[in-house]
Each structure stands twice: as C-alpha cells, then as structure tokens.
Amino acid sequence: MNTANRTLHFTVPTEADGQRADIFLAAANSMRTNPGEGEITRSAAQRLLAEGRVLLGESAITKNHRVKAGDILICEIPAPVPGEAIPEAIPLDIVYEDGDLLVVNKPRGLVVHPGAGNYTGTLVNALLHYCGDGLSGIGGVLRPGIVHRLDKDTSGLMVVAKNDFAHQALAAQLESRQMGRIYNAVVCGALKKESFRIDLPIGRHPIDRKKMAVLADTRFGTRAASIRAREAITDIKVLERYESNRGRFTLIAAKLFTGRTHQIRVHMAHIGHPVLGDLTYGTGRQPLLQKLNEKLGGQILHATQLKFTHPATGREMEFEAPWPEYFQKVVMNITSNR
Predict the structure, then answer these.
(1) Is 208 a catalytic residue?
(2) What is the pTM of this model?
C-alpha cells in the first residue's frame, strides 16, 4: 500500500470561471488523463475542502468558494488507510474492566487508532489483540470501541466500549457533558487568576490544515468566516506556580466540557500560556522555549481523572491515573532549578 500523501494541481480554465470549488474539482478530475488515479468525486471533493486540504496560494478554501480563471488549486490527497485494523500484541495498562467496558491508561507516544502514517502500533491494534471480537462496532473497523480520543503525546485515562449499547450510552454522556474529564498540564508563564473559564470556538486552522485554531481570533479575518467552528469550553484551575532559572511555569487542572481536537492545547496557546513541550502550538518566536520543547518530546499533558455513569448498572464510576514518569520528571526538574 502506498502510504504517502499525493498532491494534485488544477488550473482553472476560462470556461470554469465562477464555479463552486467542489463542482470544479470533481469536473476537472474527470478530465485528467488518468482520472482513476486518486479519483475525486463530488463528495470526496467536499470532504477534502472541509478538511482544509485544498489551497489557493497559502490559504485553504471551502466548497462554496467561487474559483476564477487562472487560479491554481493545490489539492492534497491523503494516503489510503487499510480496510481494517489488525490485532497486535502491544501491552495495555488496564485500570478497570467488566463485560461492558474497560478503562485504559494510555501511555505517551501511543496513537489511538490507525490513520494516515500510523497503520499499526496503535491502541486499537492492542485492544483487538486483547479483546478479540469483544469491542463495539459503532466506531467502524478502524476505531472499534473508541468512545473518545487522546492525542498521541497526551497520556492518561480513556474508556473503551465492548458493545454497541455501552458505546451509545457513553457517547451520549460525552455529548451531554455528563462525562467528567480532568487533565493536568504544565503551561508556560504564570497564570494570574486562580480559576477561570475559556469559552472560545475551535475549528480547523484557516491556513495550516494540520492545526486547529480559535476562530474568534480576529487575526484570521474573513479567512475564518466560512470555516465551521464548534463550541469549546475549558475550565482552568491553578494547582501550583513555579519560578526557576528556566522561566515561569504553572501546573493546572483543565476540565473539559467539550471535546474538540487539541482543545486544551489550542485554548492555552490562545491565551498566551501554551502547554510546555507543545511543538505544534507552543513555541511561537521564542528560540529558548523551542529548544526546551524539543528536548521534552511532546506536550506535558495527562488525562488524570475520568468520571461516568456505568451504562448497564447505573453506578457512578470514577478513576484517577497518577502522573506518569515523564510528567513527574518535568515537575521535579522545574522545582529543582528554582
């Protein structure tokens, strides 16, 4: 299987001037010499546009964008993913298990499910080896049992469903904000308030499709106006402040009320206190911070508490995962250099 993304270029001819981007892409692809190679249907074009994979210059465009004669659209076609995940003997840290669900403590560096660039070695591959067919099918063949996700370099607690009933019930709790999720993180700088709420919408970054962004940010201007932003709410509580020869840092507890991609990382970076170690959102133009983040190998972010109602018994379930070794080392390093 070809595991590399491919890039296609389309120049808008005079006769296509004024067409919607999705209509143009589907029509232009059908006229290529080898249209079957990376064929783009109308629905596929809409998906690529929604994911920010179609650029005009340096800016992503949406399906409603009207192309102009002479425009050159750059379209990234993601590599195909396998038809289904395969079982792999990867160790699991299982905190709790019964016939309906299990709670795992995901280590840092482990991808949750197969996708572009990570077809094997994921949590799903490990779960399939451990559970066999005993996972819910709602998430599809590549995400069986997965109710919610953690970023690759975020460690901590996740609940996994063993059957469709449990999956639907847990997903409903997640959607209705009845599932409690609290993370610990070390962020850059000294937060002034002891506790506060960040209520800012998050969507795909209007320029860099690999990132998310607060789309209420006026820096993006009209570029963000047509991109769908979703409500994102994070409650922040200061646990401890550190001041050392490496700078100022704050240990926080972040409670999620919504579950947007990279939510805590995006929110904290937006208010000027990025999560320590976050190379995607956390360095800006600060070379010293960049150097420190590169040494840390990922964001210092851990899903430490998880609460939900058991789908079958109705019992309130509460779990806590202590800081993993990498997290403890960072805190000890900061406090030892005061």
Answers:
(1) no
(2) 0.76
